[in-house]
Design goal:
This protein is of the alpha/beta class and 214 residues long. The protein has a single domain (2-208), classed as Rossmann fold (3-Layer(aba) Sandwich), CATH 3.40.50. Helices cover 31% and strands 18% of the residues. The protein has 6 helices and 6 strands. A 6-stranded mixed beta sheet has the order 3-2-4-1-5-6. α1 runs parallel beside α2. The longest helix is centred in the middle third of the chain and has 20 residues, at 113-132.
Length: 214
């Protein structure tokens, strides 16, 4: 039992500012990354393709879905964290620690990390049901949504998602998440990097992946 968890490909904003809900398109590099990702996963037996509603995720999902003759299924709960008034802020212009300042307190006009965790819970339950039924879903999300799903699917909590051991997915990276049935429930027990874009840092440990942006 497994699923494939993918972070959207590159946009112009990923390395410059806090993107959040800003609906940026993929840039030329990102479009090439999405096509390369689809080719890399052409033989992975994908049955469903689920995506965040933001266009950078949908544009990453589209070539993959086409490769498998599938439609992209949008899930609102996969959307990236809402930075509120901090959206668009240049990185380094006003340093802040999400974990310390906004774990349970929402950012001004936006969400807290706990808010994101709560809205992802139904998504995680849907994914567990799909893999239990033998389906192989590919899920295209964002930095924070994917980071939390890694922990959630493995039975972890929000603190484990934010810890140093949590997976930090790079743009256009794809991980196979393997499940086992424990106490009657499918639980993620391992993850393996399936694909990373050209030029990305590759390491043996999934938890060592470096990422920026959202």
């Amino acid at each position: 039992m497994r699923l494939i968890l993918i972070r959207h490909a590159e946009t112009d904003g990923n390395k410059t500012h806090y993107v959040g809900r800003e609906d940026l398109p993929l840039n030329a590099t990102g479009r090439a990354q999405a096509e390369a990702l689809a080719r890399a996963l052409a033989r992975d037996g994908i049955d469903r393709v689920l995506s965040s509603p933001l266009q950078r995720a949908r544009a990453t999902a589209a070539p993959l879905a086409a490769m498998h003759a599938l439609a992209v299924e949008v899930r609102a709960g996969l959307v990236e964290i809402d930075y509120g008034e901090l959206q668009g802020l240049a990185k380094g212009a006003r340093p802040f620690k999400l974990r310390k300042a906004f774990l349970t307190t929402p950012m001004p006009g936006g969400e807290s990390l706990a808010d994101v965790w709560r809205r992802l819970t139904p998504i995680a339950e849907e994914l567990k049901a799909l893999v239990a039924a033998g389906t192989v879903p590919a899920v295209v999300g964002h930095y924070w949504s994917n980071r939390m799903l890694f922990a959630m699917l493995g039975g972890g909590d929000l603190e484990s998602a934010l810890g140093k051991g949590g997976v930090k997915p790079a743009n256009a990276s794809a991980y196979a998440v393997e499940f086992a049935v424990l106490s009657g429930q499918p639980i993620a027990v391992a993850s393996k990097l399936l694909h990373a874009p050209a030029g990305a840092r590759r390491r043996n440990s999934a938890t060592d992946q470096k990422a920026t942006g959202s």
